[in-house]
């Protein structure tokens, strides 16, 4: 065929597609893909079962299993301990919710200070840099000790004395340093052309930041940000060393009293119960970001 | 004439509920240059992505030589080794020098020894007028140079078929010529090319065939001369008067 127009004349209805039927070849392809997916699912399921069975068998066959079972997996002890540990866990939840809000606000401030170029802000920029360097370098547990015991020792007017508040302060100090760095990376990942485009439309510098740069920055770093929050949720247990009755402390008291470690298991399960949903959200966001990167550059 | 190298039959592709390609039939014979024209959003890029298996088709078949590319049993990587593709946005790897961009696939995928891969790459760069840019990183190159480097990269694996997706539309008018000259040179060397383009002048003198894509089908196709100067279909005429007016 050297030349020809596709025969249909102009008056063919624009959306006429109702008469489309899948070709036999396409049906066959779909059938093949379905069969392959089914096979893959079976393989995945069998491999998983075999793996879990092997691990379980190795655990149960180990010489110390009897003892471990009695000390860590005591059903009655678990039921007994769970309400008390759960009571303590509410304190963890309160601590990380409060800390997360503070960390976001303070982290953003530190990040903004670090990316600005205004010469007048040099001292602030220096302070922010020193802060980040110092507080990322100090182990979180050490910071909890220092704030928890050091701050009250100063006997300043108005310093809080409740241990859990001091714990939150320590966590905020530590995690703000991480989150500020994540947000700074996000701010710097937004192409300068975006800021210029916003300025060209007449937006002021703060407006460009607020409406154009920051939304993209947060979008870019949401997965690592959530990772930090997941780590923070677990690290609320560090506050146990200051003595407030949070989940780990409650479990510890119960365990010492009953000479059984099962309460720790209860505490562990509670921490997992709140981090798993957040982990899944982080995964989903990461996948979405990857897809977006794909469609933005793949054409 | 024997069977065409690339044969597309009844190709159908939609994104979500949006039907982009309804039923595309298209042949590209060996050593031919076929230009795809059509309005923005008519599915030219989609068609090229389907041929390179970057997207899964909803229906229809694509054959390259004796291989059915749309066969789900097929290893897509093996097929892609036979096809080169160049995008509008170059997509050179920013962390590699031009030379390393070009030798990456020959060395890592085709296991060509480094010395040999680099020799081939230098020959290509020489031909495309980039001999002195081998050691530079992409950001040091102009748009036209980057696009020529991207073409060199696509050619380095010795593909049977080259797909070009609006390779000049991100370029300054002054740089368009140098890139299109490369395509003309490839045509003279017998390369088989399927390209989406908005450059009607180029299509007229370089294309063996021109296909007008509209409403999910190939509305009209024929020799460049015929389609571009004497279109039979009213939709083609409307499209051409729009783009040629500018
Ligand atoms: N990944 C995707 N997801 C959803 N829709 C898509 C995707 N890729 C393309 N489309 C849609 O498919 C249609 C065809 O797009 P395509 O990029 O193939 O057009 P085109 O002919 O190459 O246009 P242009 O000349 O502007 O490059 C468009 O309406 C587009 O919105
Ligand atoms: Mg396109």
Which keywords apply here?
heterodimer, A: 299 residues, mainly alpha, MetI-like fold, 10 helices, flat, B: 246 residues, alpha/beta, Rossmann fold, 6-stranded mixed sheet, 4-stranded antiparallel sheet, 9 helices, globular, binds adenosine-5'-triphosphate, binds magnesium ion
What is the number of E strands of chain A? 1
Please identify, by name, the CATH architecture of the domain at 1-80 and 198-246 in chain B: 3-Layer(aba) Sandwich
The top-level CATH class of chain A is: Mainly Alpha
CATH class annotation of the domain at 1-80 and 198-246 in chain B = Alpha Beta
Describe the structure.
The complex is a heterodimer of chains A (299) and B (246). Chain A has 299 residues and is mostly helical. Chain A has a single domain (81-298), classed as Orthogonal Bundle (MetI-like fold), CATH 1.10.3720. In chain A, 78% of the residues lie in helices and 1% in strands. In chain A, helix 7 (192-200) packs across helix 8. Chain A is flat, with a radius of gyration of 28 Å. Chain B has a domain at 1-80 and 198-246: Rossmann fold (3-Layer(aba) Sandwich). Chain B contains nine helices and ten strands. Chain B has helices at residues 44-51, 76-80, 98-108, 114-127, 143-155, 173-188, 200-206, 224-229, 234-245, and strands spanning 6-15, 18-28, 33-37, 59-64, 67-68, 83-86, 161-165, 192-196, 209-214, 217-222. In chain B, helix 3 runs parallel beside helix 5. The longest helix of chain B is centred in the last third of the chain and has 16 residues, at 173-188. The mean pLDDT of chain B is 91. Chains A and B meet through strand 1 and helix 1 of A and strand 4, strand 10 and helix 9 of B. Bound molecules: adenosine-5'-triphosphate and magnesium ion.
């Amino acid at each position: 065929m050297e030349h020809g127009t596709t025969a249909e004349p102009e008056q063919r209805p624009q959306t006429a597609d109702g008469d489309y039927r899948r070709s036999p070849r396409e049906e066959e392809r779909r059938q093949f893909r379905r069969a392959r997916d089914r096979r893959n699912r079976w393989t995945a399921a069998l491999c998983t079962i075999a793996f879990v069975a092997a691990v379980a068998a190795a655990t149960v066959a180990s010489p110390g299993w009897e003892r471990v079972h009695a000390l860590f997996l005591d059903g009655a002890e678990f039921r007994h301990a769970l309400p008390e540990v759960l009571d303590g866990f509410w304190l963890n939840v309160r601590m990380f919710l409060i800390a997360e809000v503070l960390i976001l606000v303070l982290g953003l401030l530190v990040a903004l200070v670090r990316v600005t170029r205004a010469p007048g802000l040099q001292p602030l920029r220096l302070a922010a840099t020193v802060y980040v360097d110092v507080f990322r370098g100090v182990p979180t547990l050490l910071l909890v000790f220092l704030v928890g015991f050091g701050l009250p020792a100063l006997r300043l007017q108005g310093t809080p004395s409740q241990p859990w508040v001091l714990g939150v302060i320590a966590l905020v100090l530590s995690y703000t340093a991480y989150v500020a760095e994540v947000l700074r990376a996000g701010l710097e990942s937004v192409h300068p052309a975006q800021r210029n485009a916003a300025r060209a439309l007449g937006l002021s510098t703060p407006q460009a930041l607020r409406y154009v740069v920051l939304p993209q920055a947060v979008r870019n770093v949401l997965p690592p940000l959530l990772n930090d929050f997941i780590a923070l949720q677990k690290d609320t247990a560090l506050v146990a060393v200051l003595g407030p009755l949070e989940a780990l402390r409650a479990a510890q008291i119960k365990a010492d009293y009953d000479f059984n470690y099962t309460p720790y298991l209860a505490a562990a399960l509670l921490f997992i119960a709140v981090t798993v949903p957040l982990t899944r959200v982080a995964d989903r966001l990461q996948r979405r970001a990857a897809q977006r990167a794909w469609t933005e550059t793949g054409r | 004439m024997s069977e065409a190298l690339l044969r597309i039959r009844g190709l159908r592709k939609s994104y979500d509920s949006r039907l982009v390609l309804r039923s595309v039939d298209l042949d590209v014979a060996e050593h031919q240059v076929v230009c795809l024209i059509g309005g923005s959003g008519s599915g030219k890029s989609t068609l090229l992505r389907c041929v390179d298996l970057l997207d899964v088709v909803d229906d229809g078949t694509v054959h390259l030589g004796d291989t059915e590319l749309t066969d789900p049993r097929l290893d897509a990587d093996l097929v892609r080794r036979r096809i080169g593709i160049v995008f509008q946005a170059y997509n050179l790897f920013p962390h590699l020098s031009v030379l390393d961009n070009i030798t990456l696939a020959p060395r890592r995928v085709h296991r060509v020894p480094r010395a040999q891969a680099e020799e081939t790459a230098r020959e290509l760069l020489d031909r495309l007028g980039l001999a002195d840019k081998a050691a530079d990183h992409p950001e040091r190159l102009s748009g036209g140079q980057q696009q020529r480097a991207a073409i060199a990269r696509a050619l380095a694996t010795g593909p049977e078929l080259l797909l070009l997706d609006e390779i000049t539309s991100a370029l300054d008018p002054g740089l368009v010529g140098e890139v299109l000259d490369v395509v003309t040179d490839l045509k003279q060397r017998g390369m088989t090319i399927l390209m989406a383009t908005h450059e009607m002048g180029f299509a007229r003198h370089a294309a063996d065939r021109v296909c007008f894509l509209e409403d999910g089908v190939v509305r009209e196709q024929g020799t460049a001369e015929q389609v571009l100067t004497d279109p039979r279909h009213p939709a083609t005429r409307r499209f051409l008067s729009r783009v040629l007016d500018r």
